[in-house]
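Re-running the complex after MR caught last week's input typo. The corrected sequence lines follow. Everything else is unchanged.
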Amino acid sequence: MSDKLNVQEVIDQLKQDPEFAPNVKHYKVTEGKAAIYASFPLNLHSSLKTALATKGIHQLYSHQRIAFDLAQQKKSFTAVTPTASGKSLCYHLPVLQSILEDDSSRALYLFPTKALAQDQLADLHELIEASGEKILSYTYDGDTAPGLRTKVRKSGHVVLTNPDMLHSGILPHHTKWVSLFENLKYIVIDELHTYKGVFGTHVAHVLRRLKRICTYYGSNPVFICTSATIANPKQLAESLTNSSMELIANNGAPSGKKHFLFYNPPVVHETFGIRRSAVLEVRDIASRLYREGIQTIIFAKSRVRVEMLVTYMKELTKKKLMDKTIMGYRGGYLPSERRKIEKGLRDGTIKTVVSTNALELGIDIGQLQACVMTGYPGNIASALQQAGRAGRRQDDALIIYVAQSMALDQYIIEHPNYLLGGAPEEAHIHPDNIVILMDHLRCAAFELPFSTHDHYAEFDVQQLLEFLAAEGVLILAEDHWHWMTERFPASEVSLRSASQENVVIIDKTKPKETKVIGEMDRFSAMTLLHEEAIYLHQGTQFQVEMLDWEEKKAYVTEVDVDYFTDANLAVELKVISEDKMYNAEGQSIAFGDLAVLAIPTIFKKIRFDSHDNIGSGPIHLPPEELHTSSTWLAFDIPESWTEAALTDAMTGAAHAMQSFIPLFVQCDRTDIHVVPQVKAVHTQKPTFFIYDSYPGGIGLSEKMYDQWEPLLQQAADHVKKCECESGCPICTGPPESDVNIKQGAEQLLKSLAGGGLRVL
Amino acid sequence: MSYEQNLMKMKGLLKKSKADSPAAKETSKIVQASSPSYEAQWMSAGLEKETNQYGTVYKKVVNYDESYTHGRFQLAELTATLQRWKSSGERHPLAPDPDKKLLFFDTETTGLKGTGTLIFLIGLIEQQGNGFKMTQYVLPGPAHEAAFLYSTGLWEKPATLVMYNGKSFDMPQLDTRWTMNRNLLPPLPKHDLIDLLHGSRRIWKHEMASFKLPAVEEEQLGFVREDDIPGHMAPIIYQDAVKNGRAELLMKILLHNEYDILSLVTLYIHSTDLLLQEELSGTAISQTNIGKWYADLKSEARAIAVLEQVIEEYGTQHPTTHFHFGFLLKKERKYREALDAFGVCMTKSQGRERIIALEEMAKIYEHKVKDCTKALQLSGVARGLLKKDASLTPQFTSRMDTALVKREMRLKRKLFPGQAQNSTK
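Corrected-run output:
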């Protein structure tokens, strides 16, 4: 083994490599820190001390101790816990302590996914077993055997579940869970940062319903949340649980020195600014680390990419029989298979693992030496979680970020401090969204009748209840609103879909094995899933054979063609109300409600590379209407600009802005839309609209209302720095003809960011 | 879109209070709800009013004399039925505890599941002397639930409830409603449950396609419903009765419920007859099902007696009887007789049953008769059938094939010790 290098030696070698070194745009080092310990609490149950001792733990990290003390004082708290900082003890210890003190105590653990709950059960079992005490813990989800369910409900001390199961399997049947709800001491919310956007908003309401049921049964549980690093953990937790929270931000766990290499693949297509495929670069880099014996985790964004990389990497070991040193790891693997991989990583028999973000979450795989990121995962919290996978306690860790040819990826390469500067994004939820609120108000009314003086969490809902009565789902009897229909509201509300009616994409390439490969919101489906559209799914081309708009199903078959389709959507925007407004020089910025009417018109078939138009056809779909919230910026027509020039510039600018919104609010690119209008009906001026894709609005555009200037600035900088000549998919979107849209877009963005158009 | 537009208007109405305002706690205070505005309408449709400490409930009582006939049966035959159970000494899922009151029980609800589903009608029939008394309790409205539940008297002492699908539907619903009122009402004791849906499935498996109660009534009880409103209409009709006070259709639901409970009585009589009769009266299929049921309940003597009777009557016409008989004989260590029984299946049965019978014969030849050549041959026949038969499920085929291949390897080792064998792979 003496010929193998350590992390520092590998870095030195890479820095001197003439092929590699020029592509490293930045080299940053973050220093490690030593552990901060605290002694066991005096009243910590002796069985728990024994259990910890078996695991070799004789003192706590400072944050674990603070967590225990706060829980003892019945204070809800949120602990910010980076990867591998012993976060689970923050909740296991107080929970088990409460059960050992009083056998009737109960705790509910919520994990964002079923798989994670099952993983954590193993961890908890281990601790309980080491304590030698009889404490019953179970997962409760769709996989729980019917014969076991009664036992879980009646005698499970700790029940591990997910929000979906709580929503439709537990709360509407709370009478079967009396012993849990009467004695509920703790509600643990792990991976708090995953509860954002529409999903987070739904979960916020599920938790309000949970609290309502607890109050009914006379319990007042303490919330314990753990979160990855985000900008606003306390605020998110308070808004999610509607409870006040203490924050534990100082983590006592040690961390090693981390070396970050920011690697930008070389440009291979000058005009379009296209770079060499990040996947191929990652393959080469990871192969090198493999040969040096560095235990490495590679993150890729999709399952297909994972499989691609695994196939590439296995080339290295194909001459060895039964070699298991390189493995893939992603959702869709069997639990037993995953356990085996996790074990292989911990004991070092697996040298390289390629993963989707499945391993970002809190699964115990020990610590690896290096982490290679294929592209930017979309937000800082995820990126830091991924990076956190590398770094054994004492050793140095190597993190190589390989950028893709996308706007955000390239932005990170230009601004490494954005990633390392310790200012991650905010995660937001919007419990006020009226559509989601009404969905859960129905569920709550089903679970327990509201009285005529009840509130629902922080909302005064009497008028909404009247509305539901007028709709025929409630009746008022004496002073209570009773559910009076055979419907089961929880089954009509899905926590995970962006809108209630998503279009399901069904692959019928093999007629006997049709399968659902994805779903898409109605709005996007109009332009991406119309009949004859070429739909790209994880790198594979599919043609849409039939779009059943009534049933919201798109049937696709796999094809191999040399063109893509591009549909035109005529969008009419109608401002319903203007709630907030301010004027800047030559600009007015407003926030309010918007009706979006979208009518798909025609689609074009465009050949790859040449971008020739090789055919077109009409799209026959009814117009879709969306009521949502929006912020808009109107400005005076700059002098000496033709309407055509302004149109091009605004189109390019809108494209650039859309890419950067995720820098300001944690969301997916498709959660929010930017639409330019040269002469908007409402303002009679050139106007950019930013609106939420979800009915009723989800708080994203409201957030952007205050952020126009930095957004414009960011977009302007990016367009300017882009290496293309006249606009490319990375900055302004592909130019339609030979027009140089880059210059116009950049000028427009810059002057708008400067607060007026005088600069021109 | 109009729903969404309405909601956007509601947005303006949404008010927030700073603090988390406390939700209502469970009350243990009895507040008597006043009688609903539609009381007169309901009473003129034929309901009586009853009041108790919790408030108001409506009910309908019907008495049947001993000659009352429902379908092919007289209700009064129940007396003989209960006597039969008593003298049989069987511990059977349909056997009642003679010390407890026997109630035939059915509910109608406003939905299918969850705490937002109310029971609005509970119908009970009990034998009184030579006659029968049916009482149907009707929920006056959602505010009167405690009075309604209390009036049924189900809290008084443990009874035996005879129901149709009650184990998975009516009882969990009743438990839920009771829990929702648990601070007001005395606790609900644990009642014995006899579920005739389970019984019907056991007795008429492979003989009936549907086990919906009306189907069982028509095919087994000689009762055809007239003027019946299907049960799934019940929620809408009750809602209408509460919202608009109209009770005509509600009375039809009471009729539907009455049919249900009367059928429970006659179905109980008929099922018991089939299970406990001396002389064979059902078909070969249902009698074999009954024999199998006794076998599963470890009541082997009775199982053998029933199956022997079927064989006596039908000979080898119904090979399935021999199939189950074979397993019973094997358990009794009567291997020769078991081989004969499975032998019938080898020639007469089809599909899965035939293959399993062959496997059983191979087992007996290998381990008991110690004739490995015969065992090997039978296993080979079974494997041949397994390959040809496309109607078998893939799971069965692969599981059985693995078992047979393993058996044959072992048999070959026993037959030809020391010789090279095929590898398992």
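None of the earlier attempt is carried over here. Residues 248-276 of chain B form the longest helix (29 residues). Strands of chain B lie at 15-16, 48-52, 55-64, 69-70, 73-74, 102-109, 119-128, 131-138, 160-163, 192-195.
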